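Researcher: I'd like a candidate sequence for this fold, 153 residues long. If you have to choose between options at a position, lean toward the conservative one.
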């Protein structure tokens, strides 16, 4: 497919994606997720070299980050915060994200983010007089990522 000319049906829509979370060994469908981003930030260090004007760069590490926005239909993330406040232990969890558009020939791509740890704000309660939908954004870090399914080339 990469050697073909670009065609509109090659473009995959994000709307048919699926997301699952595993917390304390229990797997949950996150059908109420609005969006997700999983990123890897590669850390590099400058490498000066004798006899060269340009310095090189060398990869020295990486940090995995995620951002998940959901309609708030569960208290699972609130329970994790309360557990941390009571015990001093913040449970980690796993996120499995599959990007798929059945009409696109590229197939599907699945990534499993393990060792996920919440970082930042977790919405415990909210209301307003406009009656808006309750959304919650969870940000954090992951320790490992695997790709059991990848797009067709």
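Model: Candidate sequence:
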């Amino acid at each position: 497919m990469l050697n073909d000319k670009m065609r509109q049906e090659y473009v995959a829509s994000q709307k048919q994606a699926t997301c699952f979370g595993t917390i304390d060994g229990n797997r949950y469908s996150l059908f109420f997720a609005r969006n997700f981003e999983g990123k890897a930030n590669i850390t590099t260090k400058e490498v000066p070299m004798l006899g060269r004007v340009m310095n090189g760069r060398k990869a020295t590490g990486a940090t995995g980050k995620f951002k998940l926005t959901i309609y708030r239909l569960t208290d699972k993330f609130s329970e994790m915060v309360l557990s941390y406040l009571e015990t001093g232990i913040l449970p980690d969890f796993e996120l499995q994200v599959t990007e798929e558009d059945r009409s696109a020939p590229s197939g599907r791509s699945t990534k499993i983010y393990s060792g996920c740890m919440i970082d930042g704000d977790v919405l415990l309660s909210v209301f307003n007089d406009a009656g808006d939908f309750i959304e919650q954004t969870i940000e954090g870090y992951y320790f490992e990522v695997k790709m059991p399914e990848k797009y067709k080339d």
